[in-house]
Specification:
Elements: H1 2-23, E1 28-33, E2 48-50, E3 56-63, E4 70-77, E5 83-93, E6 99-108, E7 116-126, E8 146-154, E9 164-168, E10 181-187, E11 193-194, E12 200-208, E13 214-220, E14 226-230, E15 237-245, E16 252-264, H2 270-292
Parallel strand pairs: 8-11
Antiparallel strand pairs: 1-16, 2-5, 3-4, 4-16, 5-15, 6-12, 6-16, 7-8, 7-15, 8-9, 9-10, 12-13, 13-14
Length: 293
Amino acid sequence: MRCIHRQSRYALATLIFTALSVTGASAGVIYSDNFSSDTVGSPPSGWFLDPGTSGVTDNVVNDTTLINEGNAVDFNETGASTRFMLTNFTSQSLAVGDSLSFTFKVAVATTSIPQYDRLFRFGIWNDNGTPVTVSGSSQTNFSDDKGYMDRLDVGAEPSGTLSADTYQANGSVSSLFNTTKSLGGSSSNAAYTLNDNNVHTLTITLTRTDANTITNAFTLDGLPTLTGTDGTAPTFSFDEIALGLTSPTSGLDFHVDDVSVTYTAAVPEPASASLVGVAVAGLFIRRRRRSEA
């Protein structure tokens, strides 16, 4: 009799594990960097500047005035070219219902913040097997990179103009920040700007909703999420993140910290959850009948 009960427990455990494996579970944070192990005064390990290094630095600093959580990256652009810092993480594919989020903290270090229209950009891409491994223009070619980005204003927002929006952003020879296709998620609310020296949290979340579609959701602090939809997604696998500026005319300095990429699997479907319930009930009845026999 004990053997039968033991077998029933094993069978129950197997059924539950199988059902949960089918529906998936959150994989949590798959990349993070708070720059705590990096050398102050040097670029952050594993991050690279592109499409060039002139007029920009990305050195690690001991941040005691802005984000104030220890080390941070001081991204200081003094020129007028598009510059961004990027890194890679282990490739993650999205099944229907899965999502991938890139989150970081940012604070503008410039005291008198100039006005720029959707100058600050950040996003998630697939580098298609050609990762950047050195800073500067010697390796610049993003033509095969596919992905998504969000944009927002820096400085005071002119009345009636867009302050933030969402895009499909496929790379070109010299940039990741191409506005390939507008996805519709946008706002002219002046709150969607980097117009002070406070710490802000930015997140882009990509969610696969069906066989062809990805949504791009942009959040800034606790403001309402701006969501755009791409019904012809160019890729469902991602391994690259980047953030930076597009051609500031008078330069801009900001600090970045607490970078993370989080993968979240699809929520278990009701039918799968029901399978677990049926399995439990069936084994319970079976065990009770055998006990009464």
